[in-house]
């Protein structure tokens, strides 16, 4: 499966800190076979895809080439996410609690990857190195944003697992 790794921060990302394809590790709940560079056209497509298909609708607006601005809406998204977790939890029974392809597996996926995407996110990095994780860490960052705050996009890379 091929997807995208997004480097995202609440602070501008200097060129020196852009991810290096040889210095990315898969987080605990991610799997990466190899990482590849992205073209400039691919980068533009991936930013648009992030805004239109991965992040909750209307939550962000592009402001500059590598910057998106938070419009609000996290509380509404969080309620929807909570309702989803509650619904999955209601399906748990003593008989299916150990079946990973049942509600317990769906619950785990909802917790570690609340955006339900194959994309990975690097939100902590230093000198071109970082750990690619599912979307929970990104949503934790978004939870602390105020309307008008910005997220900065660094490297956007392809990966295959």
SSE blueprint:
Blueprint: E1 2-9, E2 24-26, E3 34-36, H1 40-54, E4 60-64, E5 67-70, H2 74-90, H3 103-112, E6 120-122, E7 125-126, E8 129-132, H4 136-143, E9 150-160
Parallel strand pairs: 1-6, 2-8
Antiparallel strand pairs: 1-9, 3-9, 4-5, 5-9, 7-8
Q: Would you kindly provide a written description of the structure presented here, covering whatever features stand out?
A:
It is a single chain. The protein is α+β, with helices and mostly antiparallel strands. It is built from 4 helices and 9 strands. The chain has one domain. Strands 1, 3, 4, 5, 6 and 9 form a 6-stranded mixed beta sheet that branches. A hairpin with a 2-residue loop joins strand 7 and strand 8. Helix 2 packs antiparallel against helix 3.
